[in-house]
């Protein structure tokens, strides 16, 4: 009897860790990831899977860590690789293919990998934002193109982020490359030289640009009424006000080719310990409850066409009809070259 009991206990101790492991999913993501606790709890209750969230800095840091550990990955699924880093992730074979059935509700424009190694989850547009009151009080017309920013009328008004240290900074640089190209006299570098002549201010990160230098941000003592931010920034301003105003204090300029579209993806990590749970989590991220949670958690737009957009977004923000895009493979091949050339033109 004692021998039987000993064998039973031994088997119990061996089997339990494996079973527990099958019910745990580790999500590798960036620091900006957020989800409503009730929405996440719904996934855990319906699947019996416990989700552990491993935040790993910004998207670039997260990707670097995941490449270094790809043989023994940090988790099961990764969220937060965007189209500026996509080719680098795919070239390093970070993901295992998975085609979610919910992709049928996602427009083709967001599907950038034909092998479905990554799944689009959300998108946002990096755009120029402006201080509404400044332009009204000074009877100044809004710039309607990137070229307008070099006009003396906008001298000393614009603050941008360094593309070497900032995701929106890189997105804005890519928008200028798409608009002006690399060849000829009027290429993107000559454009940036003109911005320098017009006293553009360059800072290291979005927070400094938006909250310290931009005059339109609530509570900011900044003096610059133009900033590189997001098309969704105006509704965010309203969302965090105690008393919602009749109109947003800031606006975004969404003229053709003045914004750059960022798309964020999720993928099952190759060599994941729990790939089936990872696939279920991707389905969950594409499903309506998570997609409708995205705007007011991460202030971007859902890719699922069946997800409703919050009224505050439809009232205070606009989606560009034509955003600038650059092929992810070209970004991967030339990112460092472009940033180096920009640095020599703008900062030296």
Q: Which properties best describe this structure?
A:
348 residues; alpha/beta; D-Maltodextrin-Binding Protein, domain 2; 2 domains; eleven-stranded mixed sheet; 41% helix; globular
List the helices and strands and how they pair.
Blueprint: H1 2-22, E1 24-29, H2 37-47, E2 50-55, H3 59-68, E3 77-82, H4 86-91, E4 95-96, E5 119-131, H5 132-137, E6 158-161, H6 167-180, H7 188-197, E7 201-203, H8 206-213, E8 226-230, H9 233-239, E9 250-253, E10 260-269, H10 275-286, H11 288-298, E11 301-302, H12 311-316, H13 328-346
Parallel strand pairs: 1-2, 1-3, 6-7, 6-8
Antiparallel strand pairs: 3-10, 4-10, 5-8, 5-9, 5-10, 5-11
Helix pairs in contact: 6-7, 7-13
Structural description of this entry:
The structure is a single chain. By secondary structure, the chain is α/β, with parallel strands linked by helices. It folds into 2 domains: 2-123 and 262-316, Periplasmic binding protein-like II (D-Maltodextrin-Binding Protein, domain 2), CATH 3.40.190; 125-260 and 323-346, D-Maltodextrin-Binding Protein, domain 2 (3-Layer(aba) Sandwich). Helix content is 41%, strand content 18%. The protein contains 13 helices and 11 strands. The protein has helices at 2-22, 37-47, 59-68, 86-91, 132-137, 167-180, 188-197, 206-213, 233-239, 275-286, 288-298, 311-316, 328-346, and strands spanning 24-29, 50-55, 77-82, 95-96, 119-131, 158-161, 201-203, 226-230, 250-253, 260-269, 301-302. Strands 1, 2, 3, 4, 5, 6, 7, 8, 9, 10 and 11 form an 11-stranded mixed sheet that branches. Helix 6 (167-180) crosses helix 7 (188-197) and helix 7 packs parallel to helix 13 (328-346). The radius of gyration is 23 Å and the shape is globular. The model is unreliable at 5-21 (pLDDT under 50).
